[in-house]
Amino acid sequence: MGCRGAKRKVVNWRTIASLLTTWMFLVAGVSGLVLYVVPQGRIAYWVDWRLLGLTKTDWGNIHIVATVVFLVAGGWHLYFNWQAFLSHLRRRLGDDLRLRRELAITAAVALVIVFAALLRVPPLGYLIDLNDHIKDSWIESPDVEPPFGHAELLSLEKLCRKTGIDPELARAELAGRGYGVVSGSQTLEQIAERNGVSPRDVFAAIEKFQTRHGVHRGRSGGRGRKAAGAMPGKSAGQHLGRKRISEACESGGQETDRCIERLRALGIEAAPNEKIRAVAERVGKRPSRLLQMMLLEEER
Fold first, then answer.
1. In angstroms, what CA-CA distances link 179 with 17, 162, 184?
2. Looking at residues 63-86, what average pLDDT do you find?
3. Is 5 a domain residue?
4. Given pLDDT bands bounded at 50, 70 and 90, which one contains residue 32?
5. Is 86 contained in some domain?
C-alpha cells in the first residue's frame, strides 16, 4: 500500500501534447475530406447544403481551427522531445549517409508535389480534376444555380433590382406564403434562416415576377448583335469555365453543333467535350466572351 503523502503527477503534459496532436490530425483530416467533396460555395450556400447538420462554413471553420491547433500541438510535442529529436538527427546524420539521401529525396518529393498541385501535372493533377468533377456533380439542373454568385447575401431590395423583380410584389408574395413580415433590407439568407428554408426556396417563390431585363434571364443582345437563341443569364455563366461546350450550349437553349459552327466561323476550333476555360485560354479569350461568341451571331 503506497504512502498517502507521496506526490503523484496529476497530468503528463508530454502525453497530452502527443494525444492532442493525434486528435487534431484526425479532425483536420476528416474535415478536409468533407471540404473536398462539398458543392461549390455558390451552390452550398444557395441550397443550404449540410452534412451531419453542419454547413459548408461550419466544416470550414472546424478545419481551420483543427489545423491551427494541430500545428500548435505539434510544436508543443516537438518542444517536449526536442533534445531527443536533435540527438537522433546528429547521430543519424553523422553515422548514416543514407539518412542524408533520404532527407534530400523527401525534400525533392515535397517540392514536386507542390509544383504538381500548382500546375495540375498528372497523376497528382487528377486529384484536382476529381475534385472539380465531384463539386460539379452536385449541380443536377440549372435550377440549383443562383441567379449570380452569393445572391443570398444581397438584401431583398437589391436582389429584386438586379433580377428585374418588383420589390413590392416580392414582399407581398412572401408574406402570402407565410414568411411573415419581410423587410427589403433583409438578405435572402436572413429570410431563409428565419423561416427554416434555403435561399433558393425564397427566390423560387418570387422568381415568377422576374422581367426579361433581369440578370437571371439575361439580355437579348447588345449593339451590333442579334440573339441566336435564349442567351443564358449569370446563373448559366457562373463558373462557366468548368462547363463543357455541350453543357453551356444546352444551358443556353442551343444546339451544340450550331455553337461549334459559330466558333469555327470565327476561326476557333472546339470539341463538344472540351471545357470552356480550356478553349478560352487557348484562343486568348475570357470564358464569358467565348460564351457570347458561341450563343450569339454577328449581324450580317
1. 50, 22, 13
2. 85
3. no
4. very high
5. no
| Crossing angle of the two packed helices 97-119 and 82-95, in degrees rounded to 10 | 110
Going by pLDDT thresholds of 50, 70 and 90, the confidence category of residue 278 is: confident
Q: Which residue range forms the structural domain that includes residue 258? A: 225-298
Residues 126 and 63 in one domain: yes
In the chain, the number of structural domains is 3
pLDDT tens digit sequence for 92-138: 666 555 667 777 888 899 999 998 888 888 888 888 888 888 887 78
pLDDT per position as a tens digit, 240-274 = 566 788 887 776 667 888 888 888 888 888 888 88
- In three-state secondary structure terms, 7 is coil
Within 81-124, where are the H helices?
Answer: 82-95, 97-119
If asked whether residues 193 and 288 sit together in one domain, one would say no
Same domain, residue pair 57 and 122: yes
pTM, full prediction: 0.60
Residue 246, CA distances (Å) to 18, 67, 84, 226, 289 in order: 53, 40, 61, 21, 16
Q: How many CB atoms lie within 10 A of CB 173?
A: 18
What residue type is 103 in one-letter code?
L
Shared-domain flag, residues 291 and 258: yes
d(CA 143, CA 204): 9
Domain shared by 188 and 271, yes or no: no
